[in-house]
Amino acid sequence: MCxxxxxxxxxxxxxxxxxxxxYLAKLLRPDEASITLINRENYWVYQPMLPxxxxxxxxxxxxxxxxxxxxxxxxxxxxxxxxIDLKGQIVTVSPGFRPRQLQLKYDHLVIALGNITNFHGMxxxxxxxxxxxxxxxxxxxxxxxxxxxxxxxxxxxPELRRRLLTFVVGGGGFSGVEVMAELNDxxxxxxxxxxxxxxxxxxxxxxxxxxxxxxxxxxxxxxFAQRILRERGIDIILNDRLKAATSERAILQSGAEIPxxxxxxxxxxxxxxxxxKLDCSKERGKLLVNAHLELKDYEGKVWALGDCAxxxxxxxxxxxxxxxxxxREAITAAINIAAAVxxxxxxxxxxxxxxxxxxxxxxxxxxxxxxxxxxxxLAWLLWRGVYLMKMPGLNRKIRIAADWLRHLLFPPExxxxxxxxxxxxHNQHFEPGDIIFxxxxxxxxxxxxEEGECEVLCKRKGQxxxxxxxxxxxxxGEMALLSHRTRNxxxxxxxAMNVLIIPKGDFDKLRQSVPIFGDVFTExxxxxxxxxxPHSSVDPGMPTGxxxxxxxxxxxxxx
Length: 559
Ligand SMILES: Cc1cc2nc3c(=O)[nH]c(=O)nc-3n(C[C@H](O)[C@H](O)[C@H](O)COP(=O)(O)OP(=O)(O)OC[C@H]3O[C@@H](n4cnc5c(N)ncnc54)[C@H](O)[C@@H]3O)c2cc1C
Description:
Elements: E1 6-11, H1 15-27, E2 33-39, E3 43-45, H2 52-55, E4 64-66, H3 67-70, E5 74-78, E6 81-85, E7 90-93, E8 102-105, E9 108-111, E10 116-117, H4 125-128, E11 129-130, H5 135-154, H6 158-164, E12 166-170, H7 174-190, E13 203-207, H8 219-231, E14 234-237, E15 242-245, E16 249-252, E17 257-259, E18 262-265, E19 269-270, H9 273-276, E20 282-283, E21 286-288, E22 302-304, E23 309-310, H10 323-342, E24 356-359, E25 365-369, E26 372-376, H11 377-390, H12 394-409, E27 426-430, E28 435-437, E29 445-451, E30 453-460, E31 463-471, E32 475-476, H13 478-483, E33 490-493, E34 497-503, H14 504-513, H15 515-530
Parallel strand pairs: 1-2, 1-9, 2-5, 9-22, 11-18, 12-13, 12-18, 13-14, 21-23
Antiparallel strand pairs: 3-4, 6-7, 7-8, 10-19, 15-16, 16-17, 20-21, 24-25, 25-26, 27-34, 28-33, 29-32, 29-34, 30-31, 30-33
Helix pairs in contact: 1-10, 5-6, 14-15
The structure holds flavin-adenine dinucleotide (FAD).
């Protein structure tokens, strides 16, 4: 019999995973257990404070903590968990610099992979809605909001300026409300730095499926929060939900549309791929565990906790996906793993929650602790005090407190942290009637239709003429890029449409590196030019063989 330490593998470095590793390190000696934690980042994210990154009231790196310092006794593997083989007791993780997967055998496994935002079945949300869970999400959103303000400041078209100054959040739970409260505060306070936006109104909208926001709280507190947010100018649309989106607007279930350039969605959620693939007991997709947090049929070997697990307390209450529960679940799991390694009593999960706290930004919050409810400034101070105390490590506590003080004394930071210079090849969704580009626009991308149809329209003698209809597999937009001219036709979606967009930079790189790719487009452009529009060329292509056009010239490009 092998006498070495037991191999304990923890998947996920969020609240549940990190706290399990920390408690296990207290309960088991190194000769009893070797603890390995796998996470895709080398830091742990303090999600309750993540919305404060938007306004800059907490610095980017102060809202996270390095896992190596939080869990000094654990081996950290910063990779992606790709597969969990429960029967073989092997976890496969993604390749790193060396293109080889890593396989790790375990004696005891903790699955704490949290959940992800899933926009499946909601056209255009993947391309246009921003999730809000990770540090990267918070950075992207903050940069995007600053970008929208910069653009609004130079934009002459009042309609586009309004869209740039409209911010929509789908989901009126804690995270949606906190994100919008911070975003609204930030925009309000930095607008004065933009000469042309000072007197321009901005619009913030929360779309919530239920008949009130904050379903996690009692009705009077939710009503208080609703009133405060509305007084600050935030629109709250109830009994409706996001259905689809384009780069120009959010489309709701009711058919209402909100023209906007910023759309954030905090719902709906799904389980990470590695958990979805698991063939074991589940409820609503989550891993079903017993009162000891053990996975059915794998008792004593596998524990699941945090947002990816379906847990019922000893008293029969379904456990909500919150940080305070994840921390208590971690304690229960650590005790039970220690019992499995060296024997002893098992613990049951019976934590019923201490209460709920939600920040409304700008010195207001709502709090419910047992039967006591608090709102306004007192609740806000409580919120800050509680979450500051819960942040592990004196170092981080001091940094956050210093950030809050700085934020109180000075205006918010407005510098944009540009991390990506090129958006790269990407997908986009258009709804019927959307303009993809206008005649006269600069040519900045080539488009390939994946699904749906669009119309090629050309303005001649003041009249818009329909030249052609293009459909799946056809492309358009290459001529303006190749001839360095402006677009000489307008493209309008005829049906809902999914398009692959190749920006100019990528198009040029591909043409240079793969000459055959460039030849296809050069030939296509020539044929289209020879087809003879009044302007010698119609950029999106004259009617094609596969298209229903009103011209007998046929030029077809199919992928
Ligand atoms: C914006 C926001 C605000 C919130 N505010 C509060 C609040 O005020 N109070 C409260 O109690 N709760 C709050 N929550 C909820 C709380 O943060 C979660 O319930 C808690 O984080 C769940 O912990 P977890 O460990 O299960 O998951 P997570 O903290 O999400 O951790 C999962 C970890 O697994 C990693 N991971 C996932 N898949 C893989 C993979 N395949 N390979 C490698 N690593 C992977 C992730 O990167 C992540 O680090 C908030 C959540 C959000 C998003």
